[in-house]
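Students often ask why we bother encoding 3D structure as a string. The short answer is that it lets us treat folding as translation between two languages. Here is a chain of 169 residues written in the first language.
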Amino acid sequence: MAEWSCLLGARRGGRLIEVAHQRCDLPLRASNGREALLIHALCATTGSHVNGGCLCGNIRFSAAGDPDFPHLCSCPHCQRLGGCPVMAWVDFPVEGFEWTGPGGEPKWFHTFPATKRGFCGECGATVAAIDDGGTMMGVTMMALDDHSGLIPERQSFKDNAVSWLAPLS
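And here it is in the second language, the structure alphabet:
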């Protein structure tokens, strides 16, 4: 089961009815959020752990810590790197992030003066981005082995979005 954030599940008629917490899989039945807050507090101490990699498997990574800022980006660099109107990104703390595949770290290319993007030298897949001296490693959501629990919160560089695809609010 994916270990993402505290998703406190089902509502019927505005009332919380039954929840399976995704991080620890603890069941919860409540009509208010008090028990939900307790579960959230317990699970915040466990942290999450995800794995991912490039298309061919040469570049693999492991990230420990909570995902942060899932978003879409329509900057010119993402559009050209991905060959698509937007790329989906999520950040993980650098502390607890490691390259685990046979290819080691990806090849890096500076797309902004202080931002570099990591890609596989074998298959060319973009997997990561980091600012020089940054404390968060951005990874493309689609590089995650399981991205099912992530939903982009907003869109960066909306002014550069293509006209035929509605941007996120």
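Translate back mentally: Helices lie at 34-44, 76-82. Keep this in mind for the problem set.
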